[in-house]
Amino acid sequence: PLRMRQCVIRLASVLVHEAWHFEHGPNEEDAYEAQIAFLLRNGATTEHVAAVRLAQSRVLEAERRATATAGRRFSSDY
Question: What's the pTM?
């Protein structure tokens, strides 16, 4: 059934994301792009793609905030 297929596609996309990290390193932006490309190629619903895009946006924003905070702390130490 379609619902089961969508579950399998979504789960497989997580594996694609993690496999990307295994092969290429910690870059979240590119890992999410690989995951989204997989979802689009395999007929994922727009809701699934949107959910992954939202997760990507939140993770990248958290990374930007952490980098900015670390930069301010480093600057104030010297």
Answer: 0.87
Cβ atoms of 20 and 31 within 8 Å: the answer is: yes
Tens digit of pLDDT for each residue in 55-77? Answer: 999 999 999 999 999 877 777 66
Contacts of 43 by beta carbon, 8 Å cutoff, 6+ apart: 5, 9
d(Cα 7, Cα 53) in Å, to the nearest integer? 17
Q: Distance between CA 2 and CA 14 in Å, rounded?
A: 19
Q: Strands, E, within 1-78: which ranges?
A: none
Q: Write the pLDDT tens digit of every residue in 22-55.
A: 999 999 999 999 999 999 999 999 999 999 999 9
User: Per the structure block, which two tokens stand in for 52?
Assistant: 């992954």
Q: What is the dihedral of CA 45, 51, 53, 58, to 10 degrees?
A: 180
Cβ-proximal residues to 16 (8 Å cutoff; 6+ apart), any chain: 34, 35, 38
